[in-house]
């Protein structure tokens, strides 16, 4: 809202359908702001599992969130169907910056957009480790030029 | 990765004029054994809302202008876990014409350094027009006294 420019669908490389739920709406009758972060969690982890082979139960490497942010452009409400768009803005040795746009059915402009930074760590030691190959390859497929620096 | 380095990790509880004790719940921990990242935002929302109700005196149901969130951010420095009680701390970062930005920090039990820091922006909306509207006078006065 403050920045004027809205993200559009063509800026994202992967999409996941998000079905809103009754309890996503708060007292204002809209999807609560915090709930958008659970959509972020959902699209990111589903992609890591489905495309990157992340084993959330037994894998040696897990992702820790180190920063998340979201800008809210317009309200949406249950029972709307949404789509979450995903791309990678930065890929480091052990970290990835996901950029997420949330879209209402039929709309090209994001209703919310933000980012999420993961550091991959050894589950036992809790120390950063290089991103496993399968996950790295999946993330590279969504990598775009770093427009956040612009 | 850390070009937006956590500049205010150095803050302490005393830097924040409004603080709220927030007990955690069993279900706040995710399968990695600490609070899920989304829950940090829920705690931040809770302290912002309680401050808005209790200190700013906003009546969400009746007032002509009411706040909606337009922007939020959290940086995670250290893990928090159930069953600890989190101290959520708030200060006024910026007062705009139609918006207020809060700085927030979450402290674990017996911890001097925040486990997370962030911000949260409220814009006041006209109940009838659904447009951004200037902060109510009473709200602005209280915010200015605390800033």
Give me a quick take on this structure:
The complex is a heterodimer of chains A (150) and B (147). With 150 residues, chain A is of the alpha+beta class.
Query: Helical amount among residues of chain A, as a percent range?
Result: 10-25%
* First-last Cα distance of chain A: 18 Å
Strand order of the largest sheet of chain B: 1-3-4-5-2
Mean pLDDT of chain B: 93
Protein described:
The complex is a heterodimer of chains A (150) and B (147). Chain A is of the alpha+beta class. Chain A contains 2 helices and 5 strands, in the order βαββββα. A 5-stranded antiparallel β-sheet of chain A has the order 1-3-4-5-2. In chain A, β3 (81-91) and β4 form a beta hairpin. The longest helix of chain A has 18 residues, at 33-50. The model of chain A has no long low-confidence stretch (mean pLDDT 94). By secondary structure, chain B is α+β, with helices and mostly antiparallel strands. Chain B has a single domain (13-146), classed as Hotdog Thioesterase (Thiol Ester Dehydrase, Chain A, Roll), CATH 3.10.129. In chain B, a hairpin with a 3-residue loop joins β3 (85-95) and β4 (99-107). The interface between A and B is medium-sized, with 30 and 21 residues. β2 (61-72) of chain A pairs antiparallel with β2 of chain B.
Write the layout of secondary structure elements.
The complex is a heterodimer of chains A (150) and B (147).
Chain A: E1 14-19, H1 33-50, E2 61-72, E3 81-91, E4 95-104, E5 112-122, H2 133-140
Antiparallel strand pairs in A: 1-3, 2-5, 3-4, 4-5
Chain B: E1 18-23, H1 37-54, E2 65-76, E3 85-95, E4 99-107, E5 116-126, H2 137-146
Structural features:
heterodimer; A: about 150 residues; alpha+beta; Thiol Ester Dehydrase, Chain A; 2 helices; globular; B: about 150 residues; 5-stranded antiparallel beta sheet; disordered N terminus
